[in-house]
Amino acid sequence: MPYGAVMQRESPRIGLDDVHRFAVPSDPALRPDGGAVAYTLTTVDVEADENRAEVWLAVPGAEPRRLARGSAPRWSPDGRTLAFLRPVDGKPQLHLLPMDGGEPHPLTSAPLGAGPARWSPDGTRLAYAGPAAPQPDPHGTRPAYASPAGPEPDPHGTRLADAGEGLDPNAPVVIDRLDYKADGAGLLRGITTHLFVVDVASGKSTQVTEGDFHAGEPSWSPDGTRLAFAADLEPDRDLRPGGAAYTVLASGGGEPERLTGPDLLCGGVWWLGERLVAAAQKGGPVGHVRLFELGPGGAAEIETGLDRNVMTGHPGYPGASPALLGGDLVFCARDGGCSHLYRIPGGALATKIVPEEVSVAGASSAGERVAYVAATPHSAGEIFLLEPGETTARRLTGHALADADLYLPERRTFTAPDGTLVEGFVWRDENAATPGPLLLDVHGGPHNAWAPVLDNFRVYRQILAARGWTVLAINPRASDGYGEAFYTAAVGAWGLADTQDFLAAVDTLIAEGVADPERLAVTGYSYGGYMTCWLTATTDRFKAAVSGGPVTDLTSMSGTSDMGLLLKAYECPGDLAAQSPLTHVGEVTAPTLLLHGESDDRCPVGQSEQWFAALRERRVPVRLVRYPGASHLFQGGGRPSHRYDYNERMIAWLEQWVSGSRS
Ligand SMILES: CSCC[C@H](NC=O)C(=O)N[C@@H](Cc1ccccc1)C(=O)O
């Protein structure tokens, strides 16, 4: 599809088919001379029911162009070669694209696939974190890696390991520790993530870390002799949260050298010039991530002057790795629902360098320039370039849905009964009849946040607004972007602490005459699915509910989720039953649609099954829709047909059960 061109649309309003029309850029890489940005563009192949990843190039003043099939482009230090990932026989392998002419050619043939490349400072080697085969099993009982039900296709090829390409799907799986599965990868069967270094000239690959742990993304020392990475090497790491910063010899054969102590839970470490910067939590796994400078004297927190969570970027949690901009540190932190880029000029506090209404999902700097990808109220993602001396970044791409007439979110502040201010966003047609039906939309986490930007999954917001609904997305306490006290305000009090925030916002819109109290509905995913069930079990306000991938029973979650221990010991310490919707399921009357990925290892489908059975037994209208092969993150990277179905069923359910809503 050429730049800017989108398939013809029949209506100026967004429709269900637009789930297939979004083109979403990610992973920008600014050329070392600052003159061009390579990035991944993800589109949908409707026929194949797959997401398609391509490497594109944006040059200021020219139309972006497609370079190659693949993802995760990285420039060589001289700017003449792009390394990127492309699947070969279903496994991501590093390829090289000479930028002064020539075809891309494969560099690696790693048995389990490679990961995104990091060039050595002299451009002779590439490091990556990728899957490593299981260690020999001393008892001889561990089967070779295999997964009977393979996960969804991964167009970027950057997932931990595709454990679905195994040998014997019927082999027993032997489990001795809690970390035997991970959402998205499924059963790990002994596969670990390790660091590899590939010689560019010969293609020879060396595994530089090994052992029973997972190594995080590598970062080169300025002299090219060592790699820094974050990992948890403790033997009982499955029993408590961990993670430390390490360095290891890039040539292989060395032991990792630990740089941080047990007081920091380190999630990433980067060599920025001569500085080693780590992103870590201090004091426990539920709280803000902060930046630390690592030196001979230990780790010193970098003073930003912000009470904001540092966002290094994870699926569903937009952000970017810290980087240098003209010698100053730049990093991402969440503010008011959006991930923003900040710069710390020498000796001063952090300053925001992006507009308020964008959410940054990746950044790359060179000299005094920084390129970033951000969602905006009008687009699910565009590439921007901030030039030296400029305060406004230039948009280099136009991947927004052309000619779509969007309902733009209105930023609102509501006051909870205890006086707490709660922010939210409202989508509605200002000409719609009032009072009208209202859908309360609850985000997951619970430490994620809604942002006032276009979302390539939730087209239901636009469609419902066109049909006279108001969609209300609230950032209640526990949301990210409002300070650490707000972030931790529902620890041990899921549902108990935040219900008032949702109801205060709903009641405000009722009092304003916008929402009809007889036509209220609620939806949400994951923690949002939890809250959907909780609100229908503990109030009688909602006429219908659509609960996606929910947590319904914290007791069974603690032994079945890949994050069960974190949930039980740190998020919901105390009385699990008191915080579980299932305790109150006998009160539910709202017809409920449950939408769940069958391969969800974060909130296993049994959570929906329990809710379904309890409602069905009491003859409350309920339907469970299971998406085969879909992980917890299927809304972002899952099959296009599943994303379409999710939106279609939600709208149909709401219109069926919230009477009088059809315009
Ligand atoms: C400290 S929350 C970590 C859990 C995680 N957050 C980010 O990805 C997550 O998946 N949250 C779920 C709900 C959940 C929370 C804890 C354990 C299992 C599931 C969500 O997306 O809402």
Textual characterization of the structure:
Keywords: Acetylation, Hydrolase, Protease, Serine protease. Residues 97-168 are annotated as: Disordered. This is Acyl-peptide hydrolase. InterPro entries: 6-blade_b-propeller_TolB-like (IPR011042), AB_hydrolase_fold (IPR029058), Pept_S9_AS (IPR002471), Peptidase_S9_cat (IPR001375), WD40 (IPR011659). It comes from Nonomuraea monospora. The protein is mostly beta strands and 663 residues long. The protein has a domain at 410-657: Rossmann fold (3-Layer(aba) Sandwich). Helices cover 13% and strands 33% of the residues. The protein contains nine helices and 38 strands. The strands form nine sheets. An eight-stranded mixed β-sheet has the order 31-32-34-33-35-36-37-38, with helices on both faces. Strand 27 (359-366) and strand 28 form a beta hairpin. The longest helix is centred in the last third of the chain and has 18 residues, at 640-657. The two termini are 35 Å apart. The relative contact order is 0.09. Residues 1-6, 139-151 and 157-164 have low confidence and may be disordered. The structure holds the ligand CSCC[C@H](NC=O)C(=O)N[C@@H](Cc1ccccc1)C(=O)O. Residues 286, 444-445, 447, 526-527, 551, 561, 563, 566-567, 571, 602-603 line the site of the ligand CSCC[C@H](NC=O)C(=O)N[C@@H](Cc1ccccc1)C(=O)O.
